Amino acid sequence: MPKNKVHKGLLKRTRISKTGKLRHRTAFHSHLSSHKSGKRLRQLRADRYAPNSEAKRHEKMLFRRLRGRDAPRTAIRRSPSPAERAAAKQAASEAANAES
Description:
The chain is mainly alpha-helical. 43% of the residues lie in helices and 6% in strands. A hairpin with a 5-residue loop joins strand 1 and strand 2 (22-24).
């Protein structure tokens, strides 16, 4: 089965934070700012993280779990470490032995 290819254009334009949020550049903020009002420039400086709906759409393009601007940290399920996996397996086997 072929591997999934991530969307290279999206990867080049965004960064994924350690908490799983998708950070992007703000449009209309790089140059030609002399004719834009101060209020507009302040608002362009504001939040640079993608909202939940956008993050959901980008997940499909990047084949990776992401978190939106307002999503809780528990929205991303991380894989357990080998030690955590062994402990869970041992606990499950002990529970099965207790039932027998």
